């Protein structure tokens, strides 16, 4: 048994590097960028009209001119054109190239157009309504940094600079394994002594939020079958997430099988609740990391969120989130266990306030639907007070 702090650090110490890969832009959403991206040309790449109206040369206004003969019409997508006479104007649409010898755009709302002439009803400011060439970014400017998470905003920028394929961090290949003779499939009607599998579905869903599509496996509480299945699984995956079979029970074979398969045990048992019997190790030949969570649904869920997600983030080169929340009630955390307590959050004037969720222990799966995340309380003799800041691990988007 080790402390929560040590266990957490040991998990992070075994972060891995799964390398990089090129993916089509359409598949880059949610991935971690593995290259710095520069502007491939100026942003915008030409003087761009930002209103529908006319383009003029301001010199004419300074000379007192208020009406302009219309030479033609410039639409977005037409190549650059000059005014043949700078006393004239051209009609111009948003997104069109402003003629090089024009410097001001006047929108239709400030004009009267009649018989081929445009007359001002409001005096323009020189240079108005033009998005100047290179005013956002210059060619070669850095616009996206390595290790950015690609969201819809980044996708737009990547598209704008012509990145039809993007270098991203490769995600790990993950297997999720449930164990237990009592477990039946979702579509089955359990006998009175059986329950439906839920952990495998929780883990599958949680991993899919990270863009990982894991392979699923179920094993009976039978040593030989577990050993056979895990020996091949260990060769194929970067990480294996197991649930169940890791405690002190007569049919909890995982720790023993791992040892027999040569997986190095980093720790077994953490001074924490829930999730105390957590077993963690690595197969050194393949660098396969094994997270073996106790099977109680809240234990699996808490340990996945607290340990695996941060291990994944570090492995992908991302910073670890650090969120503190404010306690809305006093909490006792006496004893020698670090408590991972289910909380519901409330936003109040820019603050995040946490209240404990009513729950019935680590088997109480249904309590998780009222839970926004876990607060992590180190044991101490005094109460945690109302208003105290405590670390928080989110289990859903806030
Ligand atoms: P174990 O860690 O195998 O001793 O399991 C602890 C408790 O969690 C037992 O009551 C199991 O029935 C339950 N459990 C184990 N695995 C799962 C699972 N995949 N889905 C739902 N409950 C599970
Ligand atoms: Mg079991």
Could you describe the 3D structure shown?
With 398 residues, this protein is an alpha/beta fold. Helix content is 19%, strand content 33%. The protein contains 7 helices and 29 strands. Strands 8-5-7-6-10-9 form a 6-stranded mixed beta sheet, with no helix packed on it. A 6-stranded mixed beta sheet has the order 17-14-18-22-21-19, sandwiched between helices. Strand 9 (111-114) and strand 10 form a beta hairpin. Helix 1 crosses helix 7 (297-315) and helix 5 (223-236) packs across helix 6. The longest helix has 19 residues, at 297-315. The protein is elongated. It starts with a strand and ends with a strand. The model has no long low-confidence stretch (mean pLDDT 98). The structure holds adenosine monophosphate and magnesium ion.
Structural class: alpha/beta
Q: How many DSSP E strands?
A: 29
Q: Report mean pLDDT, rounded to a whole number.
A: 98
The unique ligands bound to this protein are: adenosine monophosphate, magnesium ion
Estimated radius of gyration: 31 Å
Strand proportion, as a percent range, falls in 25-35%
For the report, how would you describe the main beta sheet?
6 strands, mixed
| End-to-end CA span | 33 Å
Helix content: 10-25%
List segments where confidence is low: pLDDT < 50 over at least 5 consecutive residues: none
* Bulk shape: elongated
Assembly level: single chain
Provide the spatial order of strands within the biggest beta sheet: 8-5-7-6-10-9
Number of helices: 7
């Amino acid at each position: 048994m080790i402390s929560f702090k040590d266990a957490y650090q040991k998990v992070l110490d075994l972060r891995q590097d799964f390398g990089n890969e090129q993916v089509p832009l359409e598949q880059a959403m949610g991935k971690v960028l593995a290259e710095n991206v520069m502007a491939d040309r100026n942003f915008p790449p030409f003087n761009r009209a930002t209103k529908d109206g006319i383009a003029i040369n301001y010199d004419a206004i300074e000379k007192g001119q208020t009406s302009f003969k219309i030479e033609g019409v410039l639409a977005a997508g037409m190549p650059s054109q000059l005014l043949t006479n700078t006393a004239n104007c051209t009609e111009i649409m948003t997104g069109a190239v402003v003629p090089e010898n024009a410097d001001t755009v006047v929108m239709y709302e400030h004009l009267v157009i009649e018989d081929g002439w445009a007359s001002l009803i409001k005096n323009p400011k020189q240079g108005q309504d033009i998005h100047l060439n290179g005013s956002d970014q210059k060619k070669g400017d850095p616009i996206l940094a390595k290790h950015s998470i690609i969201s819809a905003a980044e996708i737009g920028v990547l598209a704008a600079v012509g990145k039809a394929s993007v270098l991203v961090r490769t995600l790990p290949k993950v297997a999720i394994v449930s164990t237990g003779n009592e477990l039946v499939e979702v579509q089955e009607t359990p006998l009175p002594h059986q329950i439906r599998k839920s952990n495998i579905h929780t883990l599958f869903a949680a991993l899919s939020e990270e863009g990982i599509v894991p392979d699923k496996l179920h094993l009976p509480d039978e040593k030989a079958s577990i050993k056979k299945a895990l020996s091949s699984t260990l060769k194929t995956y970067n990480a294996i997430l197991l649930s169940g079979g890791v405690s002190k029970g007569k049919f909890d074979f995982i720790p023993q099988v791992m040892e027999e398969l040569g997986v190095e045990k980093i720790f077994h048992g953490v001074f924490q609740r829930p999730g105390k019997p957590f077993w963690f190790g690595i197969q050194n030949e393949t660098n396969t990391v094994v997270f073996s969570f106790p099977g109680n649904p809240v234990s699996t869920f808490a340990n996945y969120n607290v340990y695996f997600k941060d291990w994944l983030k570090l492995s992908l080169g991302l910073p670890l989130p650090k969120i503190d929340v404010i306690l809305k009630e006093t909490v006792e955390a006496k004893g020698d266990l670090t408590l991972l307590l289910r909380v519901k959050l409330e936003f109040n004037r820019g603050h995040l306030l946490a209240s404990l969720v009513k729950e019935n222990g680590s088997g109480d799966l249904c309590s998780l639907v009222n839970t926004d995340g876990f607060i992590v309380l180190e044991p101490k003799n005094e109460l945690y007070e109302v208003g105290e800041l405590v670390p928080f691990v989110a289990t859903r988007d806030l």
